[in-house]
Specification:
By secondary structure, the chain is an alpha+beta fold. Helices cover about 25% and strands about 25% of the residues. It has 7 helices and 17 strands. Strands 8, 9, 10, 11, 12, 13, 14, 15 and 16 form a 9-stranded mixed β-sheet that branches. Helix 2 packs across helix 3 and helix 5 packs across helix 7. The longest helix is centred in the N-terminal third of the chain and has 15 residues. It is globular. The protein starts with 13 loop residues before the first strand and ends with a strand. It binds 4'-deoxy-4'-aminopyridoxal-5'-phosphate. The site of 4'-deoxy-4'-aminopyridoxal-5'-phosphate has 13 residues, from helix 5.
Length: about 325
C-alpha cells in the first residue's frame, strides 16, 4: 500500500530580517554565520490564538517573552537594537503583514551574524530576526507517557538553562530522540544531582497531597512563561500557592498527578513515567483537568480574569 505523503510544514510569507520586512525567500544567512556554526543565539516561542467568535488574533504573554529574550541576550553578552516595546510592535506588524487568521507560533531569534571562525561571544554582531508560522491549537487530552532521560540537564555553570540559547537545545534534542526511540512521548530530565528538572521543552508540575509542586528556578529549568501562568491559575482556583522545591525521582513516581507545560505543548498531562502509571491508575487527575480547562479558556480570551495575558492584533 502506498504511504500517505507527509505534508511539508507551512512556510511564512513575510519575515523580519536585517531591520526590515522581506519575503521569506530573501531571509538567508551564510554558511559561515557564527550562530549557525557555534549555536551562539537565543530565541523565543510565542503563541497567537485565533478566535473565530471574536474575529481576532490574541498574542499570549507577548511582553514576557520579549523580556526573557532580553535576559537571555544579557547572559550571552549580546547587544540588542530593539527594546521590549519595539519588539512587541514588530511582532504585531509581522502578524498583520502575513494576514494570519489561524493559530500561530511566532519565533523571534537573536544570533551572532558574523561570517567568521572563532568561538567567543565578544566582538560579534547581534542580528535579530522574527518569523511566524501556523500552528494548531493542540491540547493533549489523552495524556502522554514519559521516561527519565539518561542525559542530564545542562547546568547553570556550564550552559545556563535559564537562557533560551539555540546551541543548548542539543541537550533537549538528545533527550527527546532518546525518549522517542524507546517508545515514549516525552523525556524528563534529572539534574546532575539527581533531582527532577523539566521536560525537553516544558516545565513540570506534580500533585502531592492535594498540593501542586514544581521544581524551583534554581533547578536548571527555563523559567517558563506558561509555568508562571499555571502558578497564577493554581493560586486563583485552589487558593494556595504552588510549592517550588526539589523533587526526588521516586517522589515523582508516586505522585498523584503530573503534567508538563510550555508555550508549544500548552498543558500535557502525563499518565505514565518509566512504566509507572501516574497516581497508580494512569488517569488524568482533577487538578490537572481544572488547570487545562482554565488555561484553554484564558488563552482564547474567554476568561476575563486573564485578559491582560492577551494582546489583540487586528483591533485598531
Ligand atoms: N523549558 C524548556 C527547556 C523550554 O524550551 C520551554 C519552551 N520555551 C519551556 C520550559 C516552557 O517555557 P514557556 O512556557 O515560556 O514556553
Amino acid at each position: 500500500m502506498a504511504a500517505t505523503p507527509v505534508q511539508p510544514p507551512p512556510l511564512p510569507e513575510v519575515v523580519f530580517f536585517r531591520d526590515q520586512f522581506v519575503p521569506y525567500s530573501e531571509a538567508k544567512v551564510s554558511v559561515l554565520c557564527h550562530g549557525l556554526n557555534y549555536g551562539t543565539g537565543c530565541f523565543e516561542g510565542i503563541r497567537g490564538y485565533w478566535s473565530t467568535a471574536k474575529e481576532e488574533m490574541f498574542i499570549l504573554k507577548m511582553a514576557a517573552h520579549f523580556e526573557r529574550i532580553h535576559q537571555s541576550a544579557r547572559i550571552l553578552h549580546m547587544s540588542i537594537k530593539y527594546s521590549v516595546k519595539e519588539m512587541c510592535e514588530l511582532a504585531l506588524e509581522l502578524v498583520r503583514r502575513n494576514k494570519f487568521r489561524e493559530d500561530i507560533y511566532i519565533r523571534p531569534l537573536l544570533f551572532m551574524g558574523d561570517e567568521r571562525i572563532g568561538v567567543r561571544l565578544h566582538g560579534l554582531t547581534t542580528e535579530f530576526t522574527m518569523f511566524a508560522v501556523p500552528m494548531g491549537d493542540y491540547i493533549a487530552t489523552k495524556g502522554i507517557r514519559c521516561s527519565l532521560s539518561s542525559w542530564r540537564r545542562i547546568d547553570d555553570n556550564a550552559v545556563p538553562a535559564r537562557a533560551k540559547i539555540t546551541g543548548a537545545y542539543i541537550n533537549s534534542a538528545l533527550a527527546k530522540t532518546e525518549a522517542h526511540n524507546k517508545g515514549f512521548d516525552e523525556a524528563i530530565f534529572l539534574n546532575a544531582d539527581g533531582h527532577v528538572s523539566e521536560g525537553s521543552a516544558m516545565n513540570l508540575f506534580m500533585v502531592r497531597e492535594g498540593r501542586l509542586v514544581t521544581p524551583a528556578v534554581n533547578h536548571n529549568i527555563l523559567e517558563g512563561v506558561t509555568r508562571k501562568a499555571e502558578m497564577n491559575i493554581a493560586q486563583l482556583e485552589f487558593g494556595e500557592p504552588v510549592e517550588e522545591r526539589s523533587i526526588d525521582r521516586t517522589e515523582m513516581y508516586i505522585c498523584d498527578e503530573l503534567f508538563l507545560c510550555g508555550t508549544g505543548a500548552q498543558i500535557a498531562p502525563v499518565i505514565d513515567v518509566d512504566n509507572r502509571p501516574v497516581g497508580g491508575t494512569g488517569v488524568i487527575g482533577p487538578m490537572t483537568r481544572k488547570i487545562m480547562d482554565v488555561y484553554n479558556r484564558a488563552v482564547h480570551g474567554e476568561d476575563a480574569r486573564f485578559s491582560d495575558w492577551l494582546t489583540p492584533v487586528y483591533r485598531a
